[in-house]
Amino acid sequence: MIKMKYVCLLTPLLACASYAAAGDVVWLEAERFDNLGGWVNDAQFLDLMGSPCLLAAGMGTPVADATTRTTLPAGTYRLWVRSKDWFPSHHPGRFQVLLNGKTAGATFGQSGRAGWLWEDGGSLELSGEVTVSLHDLTGYYGRCDAVVLSRSAAWRPQDEPRALAGLRHQYGGLSPNVREMPASDVVVIGGGLAGCTAAVAAARNGAVVTLLQNRPILGGNASTEILVPPVGVWPHMKRSPLDPRETGLVEEFRTTGNQQVSEGKLYTQRLTRWVRAEPDIRLHLNTHATAAEMDKSSPRRIAGVLAVDVTTGRRMRFPARLVIDCSGDSVVALSAGAEFRQGKESKAQHNEPWAPDQPSSETMGNSLKYFHQDAGSPQPFEAPDWIFRFDDCGDFAPGRHPPLVRDVGYQWMLELGGKRDTFADAEEIRDDILRLIFGLWDHAKNRCPTLKDRLVNHRLVWVGHVAGKRENRRLIGDCILTQNDIVKQTLFPDRVAYGGWVVDDHHSAGFFHKGTFGRHQDDRSQAAFGTQFAIPFGCLYSRNVDNLMMAGRNISATHLAMADTRVMMTTALMGHAAGTAAGLCKQFQVPPRELAQKHIALLQQQLLKEGAYLIDLPAEDPRDLARRAKASASSEGRDGEQVLSAGNVTDGYGRAEGTRLHAWAPASDATGPHWVQLAWERCVAFNVVHVNFQTAARAPREFAVEAWQDDAWKTLTRVSDNRHRRHVLAVADANARVESDRLRVVTPRPAAVCEIRVYLEPPDAVQTARRAHEVMRQRDAGPFLPWEIPVATARPVPPQPLDPGKRVEGAISLEQAAGRFGGTFLDDAQGVAAGHWAQSTWGKTYIGEGYAHDANADKAGKSLRFDLDMIKPGRYELRLAYSAFTNRASNVAVTITTPDGPKTVRIDQRKPPRIDGLLQPLGTFELDAKSRVTITAAGTDGYVVVDALQIVPGSP
Question: What pLDDT shows up at residue 171?
Fold first, then answer.
């Protein structure tokens, strides 16, 4: 095992940097070029090389130029380019810099030296507006970090990481100031299944959540960038058809879990709509968490998370009361000083059956995938000379020869890097896998006697460049899960999740290992194929950072235990547990360890209420009205010796467990409709009903929930076209309730019901139930796969202009709004919030990705401020965008700070805005760069909504 000291490469070491005057240096970050052309923003190695870069991922065809413009005083400039010759013996990623369409003379990416470094492009005479272009020469992953033009012949940019960070700060490569972001109860790092589930669980349990994701999309390894289909309970063996596998919040977005790409392609879309539907989650995409800022008065606590926007260079600080690190790499956790392990423990440490005699730094490796299609005509492929070459089919170890299949699922075996450091060497490992992919394609296309004739018309249409990671750092908690706990099925008293994959410990040599793929294939006796095991809460929080939790491959586990817990369905269960725990930590104002000591039973019961399965732990929620009811049914069936009685729906188990079915089902000879009923001695009031069927596949296509009222059965809600096992149903409006002494679930055709719960919930919980059920039932809409989606050619592709003859409807971008209405638009997300402002997309029309509202709660001191520091002194008309509705405030105060003092305008947001029902004029004012516009919630009589601010110059 190895341990490393963490250093944030975005923190400047000013004393080491040599500076020219700011006006003498023009610093152009490549990822911020105006038009990226065919280059892509590659930010996955930011922690290692200090910045995102542009990558020419052309699969052997040079990509379109990336371009930007700058204005220069006339003079002589020296050109510096930070690039990387990623395979120095062959220089595969060569490119040029063009200035006004002419080459600067030098070719970059062929230094012959390893690593990122500055290359001297020589001196040039330049003046006026200059177009700077990155011109790819090969299509094979050339990369550029920054282009710098210096008027000082003696000045040279530095390579030392901290000094380089100082240069970025000095010359605008990063924002000079750190923007303070709104405070949250919970900051979740990582937008994979674990992070998304943690964020939603925390938000639904009363926490205000910030979710930081360093990619442009959600999904992590399951995203359409990487395409690993999520799995959990081992699907490749005979199982009970009544086992629903992972349950709980994961059921709102999960697929079957059978390791098929046809399932995996759905997760980015499903997670995005799932997370965005939660009003108490602030989602920040393209936001890379770089470090923790510790509490000066309590050094074991994180006070904030530092982050950077990988598209703009803006630095931010997110105040944090509790942090859940679901990133896998655990950069923030390590910067906080969290104890961790990396590599393999020795047998002496935990006496695990497969542990080596000596500890090792080796791990499992990383992977990429690729796809090819029939183009309908011959497609020659000339292999570059830097590939891993396989001349003969006998060059492959058993099972490694590429098959001719249309599914990329088998490509998990394209694994390398386990003998290196999968974090510190991540870029080099990714590049080696690219060499492997093109070597496999060369063999299949040009050399394999079985495949080459069948692939004549095939060409590569997609090669992934974002690596899927299996393993690196594991954070240490109060409990360390081991292989022994999995094999022996230790039933921890603080269990909050479970797993059931296999001790899937891949050999560190990965693709080039000469034997099997993993230890589970060498010794099945200790592999625990499909063995369900408990995961304790003590594995989900740090033992030495008081407000740090984790969920994902970085939980507190040995290397061998992590080989089982690392799969994504299991990490989603752990994310659910961590997020719910975070909500309870807020409720009780305690850190995770104290929650474990004082409130573990409450956490477990809340997880069971939310549909989670905890091995051999029954539900005992005193708030569940169903526990007081007497159950009966239209008929009762049998399964062997088991009577599928009505009482099973309240026996404390929401699913089959082992051989016990824990379900009611009608008799096999009974005719429909079929029903199971709960009856109380006297009327009870309720507004939410939970209904669990056996599995999604066996759930009825249609069912209804009815209550006995006015001497008749009244339908409270009906679900048709059903595809889900578990339903949490709002059966009344948020501020209403149903009163009845009888309730029943009715199915027109036979179906087994495992559990019914009945609650009288507060209004926000009723709204959550209704919203979550609607989102869960939304249909998927393609295209999904990266080779089905047109490649972007700019950053981003400009939205289509709005038709000036039509009224605006739906979501519109800032660019579309400016094109239609003129001026400059600031989105609500660009405002500075005081207090918690929720996000929403409910409404026919909004600008950007949604709008902010004050939740009609805790209004004192709550405001949203727009700083107009980008404008020049002059006269401007201001307009506020909001969506009108009857529950809005009629007396919203908007204060404009002008050079002549503050001016306040009041708006009735129950009335539609005057311009297209979207924009309300505030007036025309003399403004300057110190001016501000502040929307205040205090004293208002309804929801205060802020969508965007429009600034129109030169208005009368």
Answer: 92
How many CA atoms lie within 13 Å of 16's alpha carbon, on the beta-carbon side? 12
**What one-letter code names the amino acid at 61?**
T
Confidence (pLDDT) at 176: 86
To which CATH superfamily is domain 14-174 assigned? Galactose-binding domain-like (2.60.120.260)
Entry pTM: 0.85
CB atoms within 10 A of CB 107: 17
Residues comprising the chain, all counted: 956
Selection from 482, 218, 456, 413 nearest residue 326 by Cα: 218
Q: How would you class 756 by CB atoms within 10 Å of its CB: exposed for 0-12, middle for 13-18, buried for 19 or more? A: buried
934 forms beta bridges with 865, 895
DSSP 909-954: TTSPPTBTTTEEEEEEEEE-TT-EEEEE-TT-SSB-EE-EEEEEET
- Whether domain 810-953 has CATH 2.60.120.260: the reply is yes
Q: How far apart are CA 212 and CA 267, in angstroms?
A: 17
| Residue-range domain boundaries for the chain | 14-174, 184-343+471-609, 366-469, 625-761, 810-953
Residue 956 neighbours by CB distance under 10 Å? 5
The pLDDT assigned to 956 comes to 47
Q: Which residue has the tokens 């501020």?
A: 735
- Whole-Å CA distances, 545 to 85, 338, 390, 476: 40, 6, 49, 10
Angle between helices 193-204 and 568-588 (to 10 degrees): 30
**Are 948 and 847 a contacting pair, CB within 8 Å?**
yes
Measured CA angle at 865 (ends 863, 870), to 5 deg = 180
**β-sheet bridge partners, residue 187:** 210, 323
What percent of the chain clears pLDDT 70, i.e. is strictly above it? 95
Burial class (CB in 10 A: 0-12, 13-18, 19+), 74: exposed
Query: What are the strands, taking DSSP E only, across 387-429?
Result: 415-416
Residue of 654, 671, 672 whose CA lies nearest to 663: 654
118 to 55, 489, 546: CA distances (angstroms): 16, 55, 42
User: How far lies 821's CA from each of 160, 802, 920, in Å?
Assistant: 47, 10, 12
Strands 209-212 and 281-284: parallel
**Beta carbons of 163 and 11 less than 8 angstroms apart:** no
- Axis-axis angle for helices 267-276, 763-776 (nearest 10): 160
CA distances from 349 to 3, 23, 357, 557 (A): 16, 59, 10, 12
Residue 203: name the closest of 761, 582, 727, 726 by CA.
582
Give the CA angle between residues 101, 105, 108 to the nearest 5°: 100
| CATH T-level fold of 184-343+471-609 | FAD/NAD(P)-binding domain (3.50.50)
Q: 446 — phi, psi (to 5°)?
A: -115, -20
- The CA distance from 342 to 284, in Å, is 29
CA–CA separation, 825 and 427 (whole Å): 38
Residue entry with tokens 């059920």: 773
Residues 6+ apart with CB under 8 A from 42: 52, 53, 54, 55, 143, 465, 466
Encoding tokens for residue 949? 């601010």
State residue 21's pLDDT score.
56
Burial 427-439 (b: 16+ CB within 10 A, else e): bbbbbbbbbbbbb
Q: What φ, ψ does residue 437 adopt, rounded to 5°?
A: -60, -45
List, as one string, the DSSP characters of 540-591: SBBSSSTTEEE-STTSSB-HHHHHHHTSHHHHHHHHHHHHHHHHHHHHHT--
Phi, psi of 234 (to 5 degrees): -50, 115
Q: Which residues of the chain have pLDDT under 50?
A: 1-7, 13-19, 792-805, 807, 956
Cα 881 from Cα 825, distance rounded (Å) = 10
The CATH classification number of 625-761 equals: 2.60.120.260
Domain 184-343+471-609 identical in fold to domain 810-953: no
Structure tokens at 487: 């094999």
Distance between CA 829 and CA 813 in Å, rounded?
13
